[in-house]
Amino acid sequence: MASTLNARPRTEKLPPQVSARSLWGLNIANFFLAEVTGVVLPFLNDFLKSEGWRYDAIGIATAVAGLGVFVMQAPAGMATDRCTARRGLLAANSIVVGLCYGLLPLVPAVWWIVDPLLLVSGMAQAFFAPLLGALALALVGYERLNGVIGSNQSWNHAGNLAAALVAMLLMAFFPLVSIFVAVLVVSVLAAGSLGLIRESELDESRASGHSKEGEPGPGPWQLLRDRRIQVLFGATALFHLANAPVMPLVALYVKHLHGSDRQVAAVVLVAQAVMVPVAVLTGWACTRWGRKPTFALGFVVLPLRIVLYTLAPDASTLVWLQALDGIGAGIYCVAIVAICADLTHCRGGIYTLNGLIATALAIGGVLGPVLSGLLVQHLGFAMAFYLFAAIATAAALLFVLGMPETRTSQPA
Question: Fewest 10 Å CB contacts: which of 26, 133, 215, 257?
């Protein structure tokens, strides 16, 4: 495998200069697609609780959305590697997600209607990250990828921040269901913004990282033979098992401590405000310091944040602790793309690998909410936070002790 990885140098001829319009279009698409899903889960939990749902039933509903992501992540990655109409596919999936959430306040709040809508929304959402990453790579190539991904992710987090601000504004003047209407509207804006990206500037073969034009990249099982990918898969699965249920759990804990709907929105707002500069800095740090030390910081912050929740005396403290979420998530979203690009640079299949890693995340997205719902219902919030902090610690240890620096190391 090492000989394959060394088949071409780590540098490449830079692609022609892309237009500002295409780069702006990519940034704006990241902004609006983040708004589509940015704050909806905490308000979904609040909405279902207001409809009389139990905590464990709410956890299962959230897990169903994660299940949709889980079942489609690997297929979405492989489809992204192979398709040539990435803009249209992304626009269609944006609108599907918007429709699923937009219908929630219009249908009876029963599990056999709500859960299928959440399942489909998760399946469509699974296409967002790989398609956005593929469009970035198609525009600028590997040499400029870190900087562009850092910029894209700062716009992505700005979109989440804007979603939180809009949610706070809507909650001040309109009922809770206005959040779901806003998601539908923004999904259409996201689809439209993709038209700003000029098709003539997209190199579709480069977007899949093929070592030779038209040559198919490796499949999931071939990639999983690489020990580094095995470690990365395990560490990210544990990371998201701990992280996925925490923000919705914190939103419920805010209400448990007699916080307001505005503070629920602020749970997202504070984190996203921190993520914007962190994402930009992470692109720089991955290049200057290396991928491993940069990513390791994101792993270490997670267990610290979760433990601190148990010490929060009031809802306001919970909100401010979300700044640590901004650090961890801001690092993760940029560093994972850089590492996946390293691991597939000369053999292709970058978004098949992204699909594998996203599948690892989706495992956590399915199991975490179910586990959190059961723990909170029967043992309380503190025990839920302690367990997830322990899982996050295991993720950090696995990554720090088992993962080499991908910028310079060779496959095992």
Answer: 215
